[in-house]
Specification:
Largest sheet: 5 strands, antiparallel
Number of helices: 23
Strand content: 25-35%
Shape: rod-shaped
CATH class of the largest domain: Alpha Beta
Oligomer: single chain
Distance between the termini: 127 Å
Radius of gyration: 50 Å
Helix content: 40-55%
């Protein structure tokens, strides 16, 4: 009985996988099925079918890494596809996997992979999972229980996938019930063997080197479009179908003469057809007992459909890569911890990096100041928490203190099950636009000020310039019409009034000219060292007469050794305007005091204090604005345009100083301004 069992085992087929290393150092995974051949009790040899599963594993990996757009491919795959956690919980399956076991997808998602094991395979599953989680890629056969309690044989291929810091097992299930049954039947029936080749679309072939003849199985003939009943499968006929004949011929020569591996993918046009097929043909050399090559035996598979899918996948990947790397907008993907795991070239270049891969694993904290990086992190966590997109304009300050403006949209990034696993964003650098907007805003403000200044200028011309002229013209009319009847005293009075009007008119015209030259940018600026006391006293000489008429006392408290660096003409204009205003708005018998002191190593402060009528808070706030009406007549009706103070402010700022005023109604005003001090003062 034992001998019978051994004989039966000896006659059974065996299927195994192994990895081969090609001459160029590359590796291929092979699935081999070996079937012994007997003539009664006589052992004739072993017939082997080799199937290259390297491409299948490559496609499995591509499918794992594929993005949402390949979801339809995932759902429609014939093979069962599953994803497990580290402890074996099922977190994703396709319809094929669920129906293969007699469950719905929702039912399957409630299970652990061990729930499907038979008692004999449960222990093996635990051991295999440890090996897979250690990084080993595995392909094995296992038996699973279906929902109806029936076991089915399954071929499993698994890989470890890491997303962020989480490890997952991604695998493919193939129901090999039919294959198992077919292999068993092949021992008893050549017809079943042919059926297996047809199902697998695998044809076997042989080349007799000595006789220069070819043989092919029916499936091989079918692949090449040959009719087994009428067509001769000869070398010449076969090569007529091959498009790249030279490469295929050379590969056969290299196999026979150099024993180089024969594993080719090439295109053919089958006999009596116009459509191109893609073939994968694998062969090995058979030698006699003396080592002489006698034949080549091989298998061929029609991989047209697989090649089409691969081409589509490659094209999609190329299109996505081309889009990401050529679009000027910044595109990036982040995990739940806001770490980059995919970026486009524009985004990498914005950080000064030469390629997108250099960003992987980094976060905004590596490139932005802490406050900006924290803001980005909080926005992304909000997107993950709520599932709602965020779109806004924001400025970013980098660690090198450079600032850029971006128009950014951040969206939730979901896996194939709809779970949010991170964020992805699209940003556009709008720094130039923002700078242009700021420039436009500045120009608008300047234009507004220019219009206001223009209006004020015309107002001064229309009102303040008209009054002195009217007075002057009135006096001249009186002289023309009444001169013969006037006394000398009356004429003298009119002439004095005319001189006063002419003087006021001259001062107004002088201020208008100064303001106009300043607005046009043609005022000369020549800073020199100026003795402050002498310059101030000289500037008040023209005003002393007006002060005496109003019995106003002017006092000075200015050190003789005090010097400033400023434009002499501008300083004279500043002093003249400020003291003239003090006289104008101080009542008869009042006082004006002028003082100066060094307030720092860089500046001198000059103050002009009067006991005049003072100003309200509102008037003080608007005093140096041309677009506000602040002019008023002096205590004895002296005209005022308000333009003098504007000129003073601009001249003082031109010289590097500043002006301000303290005032109270009916208690007088004090005007302060500063000018740069000279080295002479610093030494003192």
């Amino acid at each position: 009985m034992k001998n019978e069992t051994q004989k039966r085992q000896h006659r059974e087929s065996s299927t195994y996988e192994h990895q081969i290393v090609l001459k160029d150092g590359s590796k291929k995974d092979i699935l081999a099925t070996a079937t012994p051949s007997f003539d009664g009790e006589q052992f004739l040899g072993t017939f082997a079918v080799f199937h290259d599963i390297s491409n299948r594993k490559t496609m499995e990996k591509a499918l794992r890494d594929s993005e949402e757009k390949f979801k339809a491919l995932f759902e429609s795959a014939v093979d069962g596809i599953f994803q497990l956690t580290e402890n074996g919980d099922i977190i994703a399956v396709n319809e094929s996997f669920a129906s293969m076991h007699g469950y719905t997808v929702d039912e399957m998602m409630q299970k652990n992979i061990k729930d499907l094991d038979t008692p004999e395979t449960s222990r093996l599953t635990s051991e295999r999972m440890k090996r897979i989680l250690a990084g080993e890629t595995m392909t094995f056969e296992v038996e699973h229980f279906c929902k109806n309690g029936q076991p089915i044989p399954i071929e499993v291929s698994t890989n470890l996938v890491t997303i962020g810091d989480q490890k997952y097992i991604l695998g493919f299930h193939r129901d090999i019930t039919l294959r198992k049954r077919t292999l068993e039947d092949l021992n008893n029936s050549d017809e079943r063997y042919k059926k297996a080749q047809e199902i697998g679309q695998i044809g076997s072939w042989e080349y007799d080197i000595k006789n220069d003849t070819f043989w092919s199985s029916d499936e091989g003939l079918k692949i090449y479009g040959f009719n087994p009943e009428t067509d001769i499968f000869s070398a010449d006929q076969v090569m007529k179908c091959v498009i790249d004949r030279e490469r295929v011929n050379q590969a056969m020569v290299d196999l026979i003469e150099k024993n180089e591996p024969y594993d080719l993918v090439f295109d053919i046009i089958p006999l009596n057809s116009t459509e191109t097929k893609t073939i994968n043909s694998i062969a090995e050399l058979v030698r006699d007992e003396k080592g002489n090559p006698i034949k080549v035996t091989g298998v061929m598979k029609d991989i047209t459909e697989r090649k089409r899918v691969e081409d589509i996948l490659l094209q999609e990947q190329y299109l996505m890569s081309a889009l990401l790397n050529n679009i000027p907008d910044h595109i990036y993907f982040k995990d739940r911890e806001s770490r980059f795991f995919r970026n486009n070239m524009a985004h990498a270049l914005s950080f000064g990096l030469s390629g997108p891969d250099l960003l992987v694993g980094k976060s905004d904290f590596d490139f932005f100041i802490k406050e900006n990086a924290q803001r980005q992190y909080e926005d992304e966590q909000q997107v993950i928490r709520t599932g709602q997109s965020i779109t806004k304009e924001e400025f970013i300050t980098r660690t090198d203190n450079s600032i850029n403006w971006y128009y950014t949209t951040k969206m939730p990034f979901r896996d194939k099950d709809g779970s949010i696993v991170g964020t992805f964003g699209i940003s556009r650098d709008i720094t130039e636009r923002k700078m242009a907007e700021a420039e436009i805003e500045l120009k608008n403000q300047q234009l507004f000020k220019l219009n206001a200044d223009k209006d004020k200028f015309f107002s001064i011309i229309a009102h303040d310039l008209r009054n002195p002229f009217n007075s002057f013209l009135g006096f001249t009319r009186m002289l023309v019409e009444e001169l013969d009847d006037m006394t000398l005293e009356e004429i003298k009075t009119i002439v004095v009034s005319m001189r006063k009007s002419a003087t006021n008119l001259y001062r107004l015209l002088e201020n208008l000219l100064e303001w106009s030259m300043m607005q046009r940018g043609i005022t000369s600026f020549n800073p020199v060292s100026i003795p402050l006391a002498g310059n101030i006293i000289a500037s008040t000489e023209l005003i002393i007469g007006s002060a005496r008429k109003k019995e106003i006392e002017i006092s000075y408290a200015i050190p003789d050794e005090l010097f400033v660096i400023a434009d002499l003409h501008m300083v004279e204009t500043i002093i003249r305007n400020l003291i003239s205003n003090a006289v104008k708005f101080t009542k008869k018998g009042g006082k004006i005091s002028i003082s100066a002191k060094v307030i720092s190593n860089e500046m001198v402060e000059i103050s002009i204090q009067d006991s005049g009528i003072g100003m309200s808070r509102t008037m003080v706030d608007n005093l140096f604005r041309l677009d506000e009406q602040t002019n008023r007549k002096g205590t004895e009706g002296e005209p005022s345009s308000g333009l003098g103070l504007i000129i003073c402010k601009d001249f003082i700022e031109k010289n590097g100083g500043m002006i301000w005023v303290e005032s109270e109604v009916n208690k007088g005003s004090t005007f302060y301004f500063t000018l740069p001090v000279t080295a002479r003062n610093q030494n003192n």
